[in-house]
Amino acid sequence: MFLRRTLLRRHSVLPGFDLALGFALLYIGLIVLIPLSAAFLKTFTLSWPQFIAATTSPRVLASYRLTFGASFAAALLNAFFGLIIAWVLVRYRFPAKRVVDALVDLPFALPTAVAGIALTAIYAGNGWIGKWLPFKVSYSPLGVFVALVFIGLPFVVRTVQPVLEDVNRELEEAAATLGANRWQTFTKVVFPIVMPALLTGFALAFARALGEYGSVIFIAGNMPMISEITPLLIITKLEQYDYAGATAIAVVMLVSAFVLLLVINALQAWARKRQGGV
Amino acid sequence: MSIEVRALNKRFGQTVVCDNLSLDIPAGELVALLGPSGSGKTTLLRIIAGLEVADSGSVHFHGKDATHTDVRERNVGFVFQHYALFGHMSIFENVAFGLRVRPKATRPAENAIRKKVTELLELVQLGPLAGRHPHQLSGGQRQRVALARALAVEPEVLLLDEPFGALDAKVRKELRRWLRRLHDEVHVTSVFVTHDQEEAMEVADRVVVMNQGRIEQEGAPDQVYDHPATPFVLQFLGDVNLFHGRVGLAAGEAGYVRPHELDILPESADGTLPATLAQTLTIGPHTRLEFRRPGDEGTIDVEMLRADYVALRDRLGLQVGGSYHLKPRRVTRFTASD
Amino acid sequence: MSAQSLPGAKPGLAAAAASEGVPSVPRRKSTDEPAWVRRLLIGSALAFLTLFLFVPLGTVFYEAFRKGAAVYLAAIVEPDALSAVKLTLLATVISVPLNLVFGIAAAWCIAKFDFHGKNLLLTLIDLPFSVSPVIAGLIYVLVFGLQGWLGPWLHEHDLKVIFAVPGIVLATVFVTFPFVARELIPLMQAQGIEQEEAARVLGAGGWQIFWRVTLPNVKWALLYGVILCNARAMGEFGAVSVVSGHVRGQTNTMPLHIEILYNEYQFAAAFAVASLLAGLALVTLVLKYVVEQRVKASMKVQHEH
């Protein structure tokens, strides 16, 4: 069969390669590649100056600032608390720990719209938490930040947890026999081992936050130049039938997502190389 | 610094791992804790280190009660079976670790640290590899780094947990000899755990034989080998043949004879046992002859140097299947309740 | 689902205890933090999780039932809500099996064969995770929309994809197709090809090998992938929002219906519908836990052989 002959690196006696790969490639081609290429091809209908204008107008730039800024800040907060949560889940025992561990995945399982309206209700001026705060959270950029923290939460925890579980306890014992206290042992021995996973988790949370729509638009306020995220801007342009403009911005987001993907892969490769530890 | 252990008890769940252990280790000695899996030797070592806490009993360092002292304050060096080197640090940084984490008050200056680490790496013959990382080293090299790292803080006691267990046979033999020589140079009180009796006998000043959480016997290697206090010690150290009845034993006695302490005679005599030669096996410089007793009461092993075997074979015309008589030169007797 | 670490020698106390033939004990005094540090860390972790996780979850149910059970039920059985439920289920029932087949096909070639472009395929499978859902919807508009590539042709034949059910299904398929594959691939890779090769040598055909050897080994991971795929399909908002047209009673899925209710200030109704999806999320998490335990157990059994 064609695919088997041309692509296979090592001889295999197992059947079904052509069928499986053929189907998978067809599927991806139809569902992913062709539609995605439509975005890039559409952008090529714009001249370069038009492209620049569409993707760097003040309103668009403001949306980038908000989207990238809030995503970065949210991922940072998630990195800090995600590490603590992972540590606590791996190292300590406390009541209902298994329930808490399972619930960490809630942002994965909960639809974004549900999260959106719940967070908005809580942080609104008369909401449970909103009424105690002297500043506005719902309908402001801060609301965007809160929503992005929610959806990025599991990424850091789930990336760091397995690495933390695998840390060789004897390393910590060795450090103790050599006179290190717990803080020194953590900073000099354990943290360097966990750091690549932490960075990867951060990058994943960041990437996820960049594209997030459903949980943000309820709480954001969506005012142009102030609390409008980039995905919303794309939809607005679509509704105005400015397909080319919408697609141009989409291409900018796709390219940044792609760059982020490369960074994540590079991080993971670096982590694997570094980890030849004993 | 000497170590005294008094009435140590430790159990994990329902299992008693250390059973009323008491032990004295004089300063400067190299002592082996020898025993099979489950004998409690590793747990004892870790309690001495402070990595484990006993349920009851006490540990003293040079007369001072250290039972509740934190591991960090005990000033012990610990070498793990799987090295436990810090993979993300260079060899140099690994060895320097113990010095770098000292509080500001007692921390040596940077060039003092550098000097000490370099000296230690020379001592373990790994000077040129200082910049490498652990995963670039062989097992034997890693263990030497682990040793250097433990010695860097100038411990008063050095504890080694099956230090050569993860290494190839040849490397193990080399490092055994090397550890002995290191100890002769450095003279730190050292305790190491092993299940390999050859290793214990070769390296240690004194051997402590443990079984099921108890100390069966302790003494110099020769002493323990030639004058075993219990059947367990006899069987654990070296090969042995077990006899019931015959060989001049009273009822209820068991007799133990080492394979190299049996003579082969062509005819029966006073105190001999009839047996048929079943197999001869030559391994390197030694030959082992397996004899079967009439009525198939089990195998008796006789060992001798190959050269002696060849001479004996020619003299007696030894043949597989032939009948001969075995005479023990020495029988160690224990009553069956020992 | 966190990566499964293979059960192997864990040195230190566990090994010491294990080699002494004894159950390992979690108490490790020499490598524990002081109690106040422990309490502080646990406290901060729980406070953070309460703030960002538990309170939102609780709010959904609280707000849904605040006006009483009657209002809750009325919101659920209201015609537009019901048709939203139906549409959600329809989109899910089509996209999940399709993605299941894809996941199996992709996992089969990636895990059991070595070929050029394998890494590229893996990256392509992960693509939807990096693409914003809005962009996922946009690209289908570009292909099937009135101004899109196939737009005129579809219009001629009086077929609608965008602003109709087919578009919703497509968008749902796009955002959920990695889930089954991502659950199967690491597991099947870890299991290797020995059992399949053995079956082949014994004369089994392709489908036989798959049904009798491969499938039983991955059934729990497969189930979990389907559960995740299902949860995501039912909850997808951004992509569906772009292609849907938001026609009440016709092209609204449950998440879109929630949005409409919310924008009309019908908060109790919005949360009522939302509570259905939240309940589904909780069921998903419970199933995930159960499946994870089963997968761990089966990995352990495999390695003890």
Quick structural gist:
Chain B has helices at 41-49, 91-100, 110-123, 139-152, 169-186, 197-203, 221-226, 231-236, 306-316, and strands at residues 3-12, 15-25, 30-34, 56-61, 64-65, 76-79, 157-161, 189-194, 206-211, 214-219, 241-244, 253-257, 262-265, 273-283, 286-292, 299-305, 323-328, 332-335.
Terminal Cα span of chain C: 25 Å
Mean pLDDT of chain B: 88
H-E string of chain C? HHHHHHHHHHHHHHH
| Secondary-structure-derived class of chain C | mainly alpha
List SSEs of chain B in N-to-C order: EEEHEEEHHHEHEHEEHHEEEEEEHEE
How many helices of chain C? The count is 15
Strand coverage percent of chain C: under 5%
Radius of gyration of chain C: 24 Å
* Secondary-structure class of chain B: alpha+beta
Which stretches of chain B are poorly predicted, pLDDT < 50 over at least 5 residues? none
Tally of helical segments of chain B: 9
Task: Characterize the quaternary organization of these chains.
Answer: heterotrimer
Average pLDDT, all residues of chain C: 83
Q: How many beta strands in the DSSP annotation of chain B? A: 18
Q: Which percent band covers the strand fraction of chain B?
A: 25-35%
How big is the Rg of chain B? 25 Å
Strand order, largest beta sheet of chain B: 6-7-8-3-9-10
